[in-house]
Amino acid sequence: MKTAITVANRMSSIQPSYIREILSAATAPGIISLAGGLPASELFPISLFDQALASLSLVPEVYQYGETQGYPPLLDYLNDRYEVANGLETMVCNGSQQAIDLIARAFLNPNDSVVMEAPSYLGAIQVFGLAQAKIKTIPQLADGPDLIALETLFGTGRIKLFYAVPDFHNPTGISWSLQHRRRVAALCCRYDVLLIEDAPYRSLRFKGTDLPLVSSFCPERAFLLRSYSKISAPGMRIGTVTAPTVWLNPMITIKQCSDLHTNLPMQAALLFVLKHADFPKHKENIRKQYAARHQKLSAALSDKLTPDCSYNTVNGGMFIWLELPPCDAHEVAMQALREGVAVVPGDVFFLKDHSVAPALRLNFSHTPEDQFIDAIGRLKIALEKVSERAC
Ligand SMILES: Cc1ncc(COP(=O)(O)O)c(C=O)c1O
C-alpha cells in the first residue's frame, strides 16, 4: 500500500543494534556465544521466584493499577536498604534502560550536549541519539575517564549531562579508581553538569572491595541507576533511578504517559526475592560462578592468544575487552562466527566515524566454564585466517 507517511526525523539518529542482529546468529546450534551481555540463565533464582509468585495471592491489590513511582513496599524496602538520603527519591522503571530514556526525555532538548566515555554502552548511545542530543566523547583510561578531556568539555559551558558506568563498564570491564570518582563528582559540581551513574554491574564484584558510588560525592546533581537484571533476572525488567525529588517529578510524569507504571506483580515478586533469607547466598553463588568463568576465559586467552593480543582482567561484571593486532575487527567477528564462536567487534560501541583500535568485547557470564578453551581456539583460527588474507 502506498502512503506518504514517513517515520519521525529523530529515527535517522539511531542505528539498529548490531548486538541484537548478531544474537540470532549467535544462538544457532554449535555456536559458542561470547557476544551477548546475557547473565547465566541457569543461575536465575527460579525457586525463589516460584515462591514469590505463589505468595502474591496474599496481596491481590498488586493486580490492580498502581502508582507510577513504584510499588510502595518495594520503594520503602529499597530506600531503607540503600539509606537513601533526605531530598532524594527512587522510582521503579522497566529496567535501568527505561530510566536512561526517561532522563533523556525529561532533560534534553534537541542539540543539547551529552558527554559519554568512548567506548560506551550501546543502549545509552541509542537513547541520546533518539533524543537528538549532541554526543561528545572522551577517552577511557585504565582507571576511569580522561579527566583533562572531561574538564575541557565541561569548560565549554555547554554540557548538560555526563553518562557513565563507573563499575565494570560495558563493554570494557573497567572500574574507576577512588580518585577518579571524587574528581568526576567535583567537576560535575564545578561546571554544573548532571551525572548519570549507571550501575547495573556493581553487585557483580567477585574480587576486591566496593568503592563509593560517584553519586555519593555529588548526590544533589546525580541520577543513580540500579538494575535487578544481573543479580536476579533481566526478563523481569526492573531497575530503579534515585535522584533529587525535583528531578524525579518530571520523569514520573513522562513515565505516566509512557506506561502508567512498571508491572506491579513483578515488583512485589522482586521484593519477596530480595527479602528472602536465601537471596544473599544466591548472589554469592553468581559471583563465585562468574569469578570462575572469568578465570577460565583469561587463562584461555593467555594460553592461546597472547602476545599478539592483550586484554584486561577484571574484578567483576561480565566483560573482557580484547585488543587485537592491526586488522579489521568486523572481519574477525564474521570469520569467528564461521568458526563457531560469536564475539562483538569493539567499534560498535563507539560513535560512527570515531577511529578505533581493533578490539573485541568478550562476555564471560553466559558460557559454561568448560567451553572457553574451545571458544578461544576457534577465535584464534579466525584471527589467523583473517591475517593470512591480509598478507
Ligand atoms: C551499562 C548498562 N546499562 C543499562 C543496561 C540495561 O539494563 P536493564 O536490564 O536494567 O534495563 C545494560 C544492559 O546490559 C547495561 O549494560
Describe the overall structure.
Helix content is 40%, strand content 16%. The protein is an alpha/beta fold and 391 residues long. It has 2 domains: 140 residues, Aspartate Aminotransferase, domain 1; 230 residues, Aspartate Aminotransferase, domain 2. The strands form 3 sheets. An 8-stranded mixed sheet has the order 2-9-8-7-6-3-4-5, sandwiched between helices. The longest helix is centred in the C-terminal third of the chain and has 26 residues. The radius of gyration is 21 Å and the shape is globular. The termini are far apart. The model has no long low-confidence stretch (mean pLDDT 95). The site of pyridoxal-5'-phosphate has 14 residues, from helix 4. Pyridoxal-5'-phosphate (PLP) binds next to helix 4.
State the CATH class of the largest domain: Alpha Beta
Q: Name the strands of the widest sheet in spatial order.
A: 2-9-8-7-6-3-4-5
Instruction: Count the beta strands.
Output: 14
Q: Would you give the CATH topology of the largest domain?
A: Aspartate Aminotransferase, domain 2
Q: Could you give me the name of the CATH homologous superfamily of the largest domain?
A: Type I PLP-dependent aspartate aminotransferase-like (Major domain)
What is the helix content?
25-40%
**Dominant shape:** globular
The radius of gyration computed from the alpha-carbon positions, rounded to a whole number of angstroms, is: 21 Å
Q: Alpha-carbon distance between the termini?
A: 50 Å
**The CATH architecture of the largest domain:** 3-Layer(aba) Sandwich
What is the structural class?
alpha/beta
Identify the quaternary structure here: single chain
**What small ligands are held by the chains?**
pyridoxal-5'-phosphate
Q: Could you tell me the mean pLDDT? A: 95
Percentage of residues in DSSP E strands: 15-25%
How large is the count of helical segments?
12
Task: Give the tally of structural domains.
Answer: 2
